[in-house]
Amino acid sequence: MLGITMRGIRHAYPGGAVEERDALARDWPRFLARVFPEERVLYLPNTGAESVTFAGAQELSGLILSGGEDWGVTPARDATERALLDWARQKALPVFGVCRGAQVINLLAGGTLGACDRHVATRHELELARPVAGGRHHEVNSFHARAIRPDGLAPGLEPFALAPDGTVEGFMNADGRIVGVMWHPEREPRPAPLDLALLRAWSAKR
Length: 206
Prior knowledge:
The chain has 206 residues and is α/β, with parallel strands linked by helices. It has five helices and 13 strands. A nine-stranded mixed sheet has the order 4-1-5-6-13-12-11-8-9, sandwiched between helices. It has a two-stranded antiparallel sheet with strand order 2-3. The protein is globular, with a radius of gyration of 16 Å. It starts with a strand and ends with a helix. The relative contact order is 0.16. The model has no long low-confidence stretch (mean pLDDT 96).
């Protein structure tokens, strides 16, 4: 079973009442059903350390950190993903980070983030360190305002994809169990060959 984290949303009602909600784009269930048609998926609530008890009881075999708001915007989500990432590392579970998820992996492993231009709501080419899915050059979507520069990549993580401006678009650790990408595979109309190859290679580590 795969676990996936969710965004934190605040809904304000007339009169001042506020409801905290967790949410995930509907792109994700459709995407995961295409990539892993036989896989069960657990949607993880932003309950901080309690999320580890919930995830552990379901015997997860892999963890996806989804995209969304920047680190520091939603404390409950930050605490949840910190706890889940620590737990996954202790259990040697594969972790795949998407956009914010990649940033979280890098930050919590000791890396840094910087600002970037022309990476929001656009598409650009990236260059891979080695050919994947037929080549070294692929086009991806882009929705992030914070970037990972090569000198800001955490120890133990190696870049495998760079944007034209030199920022890191994809990284992994030595054994391929931890992978981060700065684009959104789930937002494509159909799974791209590059994303299929990356996710299936990652899943094989489970």
